[in-house]
Amino acid sequence: MFHQLPDTGKTPLFIMLDGTWPEARKMFRKSPYLDSLPILSLSIEALSRYQLREASLAGQQCTAEIAVALLEQAGDNVAAQTLNHHFEHFRKSYLAGKPHHPADRSENTR
Questions:
Q1: What is d(CA 62, CA 20) in angstroms, rounded to the nearest whole number?
Q2: How many CB atoms lie within 10 A of CB 54?
Q3: For the chain, which terminal residue's Cβ has fewer other Cβ atoms within 10 angstroms, N or C?
Q4: pLDDT for 17-55, tens place per residue?
Q5: Among the ranges 8-17, 25-34, 85-94, 101-110, which has the highest mean pLDDT value?
Q6: Rounded mean pLDDT of the chain?
Q7: DSSP string, the chain
Q8: d(CA 31, CA 24)
Q9: 96: which residues sit within 8 A by CB, 6+ positions away?
Q10: pTM for the whole thing?
């Protein structure tokens, strides 16, 4: 398991398993072709901004947030910022359509 990307001189290719933690574990176990690939462990200190559903554990991030962190670690800051912008737009638009859910919790605490 890596905690940072190895410097191979090649553009990294990421395979991300998108699902709940139990679903992702099941996909990983049922995909033996992934066994030979390196696993990258990320330490993300920022709280998730997802808010579309509750995380089962504190510190969990949604797939888009993980992808942004991976792109940043790979040094592709333009792609990371672009994805983050699209994620924010999607998140706010989705939450705005939910009458029982404020569009952004931080905006309501001012």
A1: 9
A2: 7
A3: C
A4: 988 888 989 999 999 999 998 888 887 777 666 656 665
A5: 25-34
A6: 80
A7: -BSS----SSPP------S-HHHHHHHHHT-GGGTTS--B-----SPP---SS--SSTT---HHHHHHHHHHHTT-HHHHHHHHHHHHHHHHHHHHT-TTS-S-GGGGG-
A8: 11
A9: 103
A10: 0.71
**Chain position carrying tokens 């993300």:** 44
Tokens coding 109: 């605490």
Give the Cα separation of 106 and 110 in Å (integer).
Answer: 7
> Does pLDDT of 71 surpass 80?
yes
Task: Tell me the C-alpha to C-alpha distance, in Å, between residue 93 and each of 22, 24, 59.
Answer: 28, 27, 23
Residue partners of 103: CB distance under 8 A and separation at least 6? 92, 95, 96
Greater confidence (49 vs 75) lies with: 75
Q: What is the DSSP secondary-structure string of 57-75? A: STT---HHHHHHHHHHHTT
